[in-house]
Amino acid sequence: MESNTVYIHYGDDTFRKPNPIKNIALFTKPHGGLWASRVGDPQGWKDWCETEEFRLDALGSYFLFTLKPEARVLELSHEDQLENLPKLKPYDKNDMWSECNLDFEKLAMEYDAVEVTNIGRLYYPLYGWDCNSILVMNPNIVDVSTH
Fold first, then answer.
1. How would you write 10-35 as a 3-class SS string?
2. What pTM, to 2 d.p., does this model score?
3. Would you say residue 131 has pLDDT above 80?
4. Lowest CB count within 10 Å: 28, 40, 93, 108, which one?
């Protein structure tokens, strides 16, 4: 992962420390953290919102950031990567309707962020992520100083 990748978070115009990561039973996303997409990603949050006509009003406020060079990012681009990650319940990758409920509290002990870079391949197992995005679990790796 490139440390100079620029991310955009919509809905706020300044960075505020997010709530800590807490698992949500039977859901593919946790509570807390900072959600963003890469700037200009055609499968990112902005394009998804415009296509779905979802929360368009929130696109007017945003801030940009990069990650500090020491950031430990788990980049997910294909389903096989989910196999050995900690989960809240068993996951059957052969069942199209089986959702992968990752244990984000455990992941946060090893990684600072989780980034999905190919939602087309991960749409069903990570149903609810909807678009390419990054979940920053450790706010100390966020660098807003150059933006």
1. ECCCCCCCCCCCECCCCCCCCECCEE
2. 0.93
3. yes
4. 40
84: left (phi over 0), alpha (psi -120 to 50) or beta: alpha
* Dihedral sign of CA atoms 11, 15, 21, 22 in order: negative
Strand order in the sheet with 34-38: 73-76, 113-116, 133-136, 34-38, 7-10, 62-67, 142-143
Q: Give the count of beta carbons closer than 10 Å to the beta carbon of residue 34.
A: 22
73-76 and 113-116: which strand pairing?
parallel
The yes-or-no verdict on residue 1 having pLDDT over 60 is: no
- SS3 assignment, position 108: helix
Task: Report residue 95: phi and psi, to 5°.
Answer: -100, 110
Largest CA distance in the chain: 44
Residue 43: name the closest of 126, 130, 146, 138 by CA: 130
